């Protein structure tokens, strides 16, 4: 195949690839702006509930990697809230759409606040957030902290250092 034919075949493909990549960059910037907006919201709600905002961010990273549309079984959204277990909480808070990032975060922080009011140990709180509460308590009493709890607590500490705390 001569060079002219090769260029004629390759050029449209390159243009299509370029067109496909350009919106991804725009979406990436938009997603980052949304994340910053959510961080401001997280700080505000966390302060109201006396919860470390970096802990909330670490949970969001672990649960959904900041994807508000994330679904894992019956767990939905940024903080992977299960509406079955949190229906009363959702009604009390006026949160009907767990794919809405702000509603999801509000329910998640409210739940964390409840867990911290029951026990101040971050590892137990994180294990209860992530698994059956009875199982979490048994593991915690045995000194067997879950990988989830250890990694989220460590990431929360990293984020605190990054934020100068």
Strand order of the largest sheet: 1-2-3
Main CATH class: Mainly Alpha
Largest sheet: 3 strands, antiparallel
What is the ordering of alpha helices and beta strands? Answer: HHEEEHHHHH
Protein name: Transglycosylase SLT domain-containing protein
InterPro entries: Lysozyme-like_dom_sf (IPR023346), Transglycosylase_SLT_dom_1 (IPR008258)
Domain Transglycosylase SLT: 41-135
Pfam family, one: SLT
Structure notes:
The protein is globular and about 40 Å long. Helices cover about 75% and strands about 5% of the residues. It is mainly alpha-helical and about 160 residues long. Strands 1-2-3 form a 3-stranded antiparallel β-sheet.
Q: Which features would summarize this protein structure in a list?
A:
single chain, 165 residues, Lysozyme, 7 helices, Lysozyme-like_dom_sf, Transglycosylase SLT domain-containing protein
Helix and strand layout, with pairings?
Blueprint: H1 3-49, H2 53-64, E1 71-72, E2 75-76, E3 81-82, H3 83-93, H4 101-118, H5 122-130, H6 133-141, H7 147-162
Antiparallel strand pairs: 1-2, 2-3
Short description:
The protein has 165 residues and is mainly α. 74% of the residues lie in helices and 4% in strands. Residues 41-135 form the Transglycosylase SLT domain.
């Amino acid at each position: 195949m001569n060079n002219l034919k090769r260029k004629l075949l390759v050029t449209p493909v390159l243009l299509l690839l370029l067109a496909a990549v350009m919106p991804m960059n725009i979406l990436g910037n938009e997603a980052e702006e949304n994340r910053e907006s959510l961080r401001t919201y997280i700080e505000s709600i966390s302060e109201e509930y006396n919860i470390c905002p970096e802990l909330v961010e670490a949970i969001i990273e672990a649960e959904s990697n900041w994807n508000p549309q994330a679904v894992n079984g019956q767990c939905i959204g940024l903080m992977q809230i299960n509406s079955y277990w949190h229906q009363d909480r959702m009604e009390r808070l006026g949160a009907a759409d767990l794919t809405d990032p702000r509603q999801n975060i509000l329910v998640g922080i409210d739940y964390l606040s409840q867990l911290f009011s029951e026990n101040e140990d971050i590892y137990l709180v994180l294990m209860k957030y992530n698994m059956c509460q009875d199982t979490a308590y048994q593991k915690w009493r045995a000194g067997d902290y879950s990988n989830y709890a250890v990694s989220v607590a460590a990431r929360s500490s990293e984020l605190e250092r990054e934020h100068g705390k």
